[in-house]
Known about the structure:
The protein is of the alpha/beta class and 373 residues long.
Amino acid sequence: MYIKARAQLDKKTKNLVKRLKPGEIAIIDHCDIDEVAAESLVDAKVKAVINASRFISGKYPNQGPKILHKAGIFMLDNVGTGIFDIVKNGDEIEIIDNEVYYNGNVIAKGMVLTSEVINYMQQEAQKNLEEELDKFIENTLDYAKKEKYFITENIPIPPIKTRIRNRHVLVVVRGKEYKEDLMTIRYYIQEVKPVLIGVDGGADALLEFGFKPDIVVGDMDSVSDKGLLSSKEIVVHAYPDGRAPGLKRVKELGLDAHVFPAPGTSEDIAMLLAYEKGADLIVAVGSHSSMIDFLEKGRKGMASTFLVRLKIGSKLVDAKGVNKLYRSNLKLSYIVGLLLSALMPIIVISMISTPMQQLLKIIALRIKLIFGL
């Protein structure tokens, strides 16, 4: 394998994909790369991905590498963080088999990830899943006990201006299959006109489909400036002690924001905000709900998510995977049936209308003359 191209590098994949150009080599430091990160690299049309860390560490069978391989993207695994001290953004590098060259010198070596290697590593990781599950459950229960005040006590909810009471609320997270699910429910959005809440990068997901977010909720680490500027209101997720690192960025853009101190994830507080403001229904797109989702986000438990979903109960509809529910092929029998239904009124009118009967006789006579019948 030989690849020569310009490199772009960043230890945060979500920051790197914003400036990647087609055909470039992405250099990342992303252990257990998740599906969303992998899909963003595929969308960027990179030629290769060099990872300073392990694509699959063996803790759990993450699916990111399979997505990259399926897209035909070359992967070089575990080359070490020293590459970040040598290569700069825009530098041209070469990959020859499992070695990285810069100015003619070998600067890093790794393991090439083939389909066989990926399958083997995932099978090995599957063996560790039970142990990880035990740890995950224990952490979830421990933190649920500590954070139960999150749903049992009256925590201060930001005084937002957007009217939510008795309306549907769509909470969008840029998670697994968010594009497919948004595409499937776009008519629901157009017809019902729910309040649109983008959780960090979820604001950009809404813009991608032509919808402007009413509210952006998050710690502001993965939403674009355009996403923030397009939103009517901003709610910065702060630590329970009140520290809100994301507020600085909002202020630098000259925007105002509410601060919401709370434990857990930003999508949790977005749902809680909608519930406490009287939403009639909360629809979640791309949200994290499974153990693998949380492990891919680097979280050791899902206490706040468990507690919030316990509280909002029947008001929540999770649209994850809804695209699969409605995916079907257009069958020939459906088309024939539709055409017959459309022709039926014409046939009936022809049978009872004297002018139509005369017209049909003229057409029949014309056909006979043409063919000499």
